[in-house]
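User:
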Amino acid sequence: MRNLLLLVALLMITTACTPASQSTAATPVAESTRVPAPVTPAQLPTATPSSAATASTPPAAENTPIVAAPAPDLSTLSLTLEPVIQGLDQPLLLTHAGDDSGRLFVVEKSGRIRIWQDGQLLADPFLDISNQVSDSSEQGLLGLAFPPDYAASGHFFVDYTDVAGDTHVARFTVAAADANRADPASETLVLKLDQPAPNHNGGNLAFGPDGMLWIGTGDGGAANDLFGNGQNPATLLGKLLRLDVTRAPDQPYTLPADNPWVAATWNGQDVRDEIWAVGLRNPWRYSFDRATGDLWIGDVGQNRLEEVNVTPAGSAGGLNFGWPIMEGKSCFQVAQCDQTSLTLPIVDYVHGPHCSITGGYVYRGTQIPAWDGIYFYADYCSGVIWALAPDGAGGWRNAEVASSGLTISSFGQDAAGELYLTDLAGGVVYRLGE
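Assistant: Predicted structure:
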């Protein structure tokens, strides 16, 4: 019964403001989308540059990124899952600090971060903000990222929904006297987003090869992009954001000068300078290939299709991933639609036993050389795990490699590049192996 309740509580994952100035400095943003202006499909920007803005509008990306890598063999791939950490409370994420400590950090939905060290789950949490986190529906402590300078600065970043259900991206600092405890009083607000509904909160955080903090935001929830955020350039919801949070630690963040819409418009409209890409529904988990820098996004679909998007390293951004014009590779709720300048997924899959994609990682560990270059991802409802890799001819191979029966809420990666996954209902972290 407990597992069933947990599955229902997260089912929406599974089924699921004014423009900033051109200054490079920014203060925490509180964005209100509770009473949005109505947006009809005819009013949605098409991501086609206006004649007045053609010279300064970022170029559209290729729909099928070119990944310069050999073609791994998926035909003989076998996968096992070894339970490593048990006794967790709804684990949503696993990561490492990049500080050579060998520790693994596990995010629990209710608002705690736990540490796995030397084969043990430490009794005291690294951080406990459960008293300020709402964790119903798709809410909770959803994201954690350690910057490249963590060993020196002691700063790290989390994404959570507060007791009102609104998103906070915040910075915390490790306690001076204990490397295994963060100072809960050190919280500095980076960004605040008003959430009009309790689902589609995104919440993933990742530092890219560029040292910037990447923030995935959902479209505000409900269904059918009810609030008109996916294609709305004036809101930060339904987007992928890119912020500089390390260069000026006395400020919440600064705007990277090379963000795509800092000096460009989109169909003649201003776009929030924090935005790197638009048209996402709920990018629950995304990651950077640690070898190539390519960006992989698992974007949760609505009632029919789930999708994987890939963007090559070095992309200038300014991408439109299509929601709600598209769901997966298909026009959403219409027979035909304008796909001009949209960046389409490389793979999508239909619902059935499946219902919600959990994006993963490209394997770059050393324990299983045959896996090098393979991207692993899963479905939350069915527990099926897939392997995806270039086919060597400009296309992709995709193969089901396991049917786990788990509620896979996230994949994780340790400092050596070995892969893990979290089972939300079971409270267990598993390591992927042959």
